[in-house]
Design a protein that fits this description.
Elements lengths: L23 H16 L4 E3 L9 E6 L2 E22 L15 E14 L5 E7 H14 L10 H10 L1
Antiparallel strand pairs: 1-2, 2-3, 3-4, 4-5
The structure holds nickel (II) ion.
């Protein structure tokens, strides 16, 4: 089982490199990512979170499940929606459970990328899926959800992490 990296690990702050080889190793990596995510009841997991600095993520949220490789995100509806958000890489130091805070995210997005067989994928999303895509794409750029919080909110989270 791949270990999930926590805030403080430099890999989470490093912009990830594009995936290049669409081979068996990549397919195994995706399977490993799903396994690591499900083991901790996560709804999304990006490469850097298991120490793989590559542009891909997996997700399983609100009945929508999949993976995206080299995703490019476009905001279709910038209307900010505030909702609780947490991250497997930002756990409470005491309990090990993810810390949650209300995060403002765009209401609607489209992600375009590739699947494990290098076929083009394009998904338009709203609600929790749109939130998830923004959160996971941020991971690929070395960003965490605490970066988009108001400073005092971020401070509260970082104090416990
Ligand atoms: Ni996360």
């Amino acid at each position: 089982m791949r270990e999930i990296r926590a805030i403080g690990d430099p890999v989470l702050r490093t912009p990830a490199e594009p995936v290049e080889g669409f081979d068996r190793e990549l397919r195994k990596l995706i399977d490993d990512m799903f396994r690591a995510m499900y083991a901790v009841n996560g709804v999304g997991l990006a490469g850097p979170q298991i120490g793989v600095s590559r542009r891909l993520f997996v997700y399983d949220i609100s009945g929508r499940k999949g993976h995206l490789i080299n995703p490019v995100l476009t905001v279709d509806d910038p209307d900010p929606i505030l909702d609780e958000e947490g991250c497997l890489s930002v756990p409470d130091r005491q309990t090990g459970q993810p810390l949650y805070a209300p995060v403002a995210r765009a209401a609607g997005v489209t992600v375009e990328g590739l699947d494990r067989l290098e076929r083009p994928v394009r998904i338009t999303a709203r609600g929790s899926l749109a939130r998830c895509f923004q959160h996971e794409t941020d991971h690929l750029d070395g960003k965490l959800y605490v970066d988009v919080l108001p400073k005092n909110e971020a401070r509260k989270i970082l104090h416990k992490a």
